[in-house]
Amino acid sequence: MKKQYKAIFLDWDDTIGDWTGAEHNALRDIYENYNLKTLYPCFEDYLNAYKPYNLELWTLYGQGGISKERLHFQRFFKPIEGLPVADDKLQKLAHEMGDEFLQLTNKYFSVLPGAEEVVRELAKKYPLTIISNGFKEVQYYKFAHSGLADCFAHTIISEEVGINKPQPEIFRIALERNGVTADQVVMIGDSYSSDIAGAKAAGIDQIWLHEGDAEEDATFIVPSLPDVVGLLL
């Protein structure tokens, strides 16, 4: 018999919205627009410099160890340190790249295949709450342009509440806003470190969107958002 939940919490990026695709296209434009082939002969080389460091910064951000502004600047500054220009010009360039990147990710924003249908079906039965670590100006743009804003009872952005996933306190804020207890909800997300580990720490069931073998465990593991239908509806 299926467990009966009273509310559902969801991550946004790469759970509902296609962040990976938007990020990839935006970084390709950055690579071309700023002629980064002088440092990186091909786009994949630039990705290999940017992505691991970006992930490291986001981990620090999730732990409260770095500010939004520092993350946003540093992820573009470090990969271009090798350019033969003065440091002040490098810093200015990194800020420009960061601002353009956010505009480009909005340009390339899309909802993942099948996500709209699943969200609308879930919203018929459950109050839905988004819990996101994304930057508020970017996330609210996505919500507004997704066509799904009416499906969510609450949206909780880490920047606004001052707490990042995976800290359990952000999940407790969501519980309070929904008037439910931890055993009455389930968290759906693609990131083990922020979504799944955070929900576990708050005593909340989890549905981990993960393809292939899993080194970690969760209450449920399914390949993609459409696969939650059999669990929740």
Shape: elongated
- Would you count the extended β strands for me? 6
SSE sequence, one letter per element: EHHHHHEHEHHEHEEH
What would the CATH topology of the largest domain be? Rossmann fold
Q: Report the radius of gyration as a whole number of Å.
A: 19 Å
Task: State the secondary-structure class.
Answer: alpha/beta
Going by CATH, the architecture of the largest domain would be 3-Layer(aba) Sandwich
Return residue spans where pLDDT drops below 50 for at least 5 consecutive residues.
none
Please state the average pLDDT score.
95
Largest sheet: 6 strands, parallel
Protein architecture, described:
This protein is an alpha/beta fold and 233 residues long. It has 2 domains: 7-18 and 111-232, HAD superfamily/HAD-like (Rossmann fold); 20-107, Putative phosphatase, domain 2 (DNA polymerase, domain 1), CATH 1.10.150. 50% of the residues lie in helices and 12% in strands. The chain is built from 10 helices and 6 strands; from the N terminus they run E-H-H-H-H-H-E-H-E-H-H-E-H-E-E-H. The protein has helices at residues 19-33, 43-62, 68-77, 87-107, 115-125, 136-146, 158-161, 168-178, 192-201, 229-232, and strands spanning 7-10, 128-132, 152-157, 185-189, 205-209, 220-222. A 6-stranded parallel sheet has the order 3-2-1-4-5-6. Strand 4, helix 9 and strand 5 form a beta-alpha-beta unit. Helix 2 (43-62) packs antiparallel against helix 3 (68-77) and helix 3 (68-77) crosses helix 4. The model has no long low-confidence stretch (mean pLDDT 95).
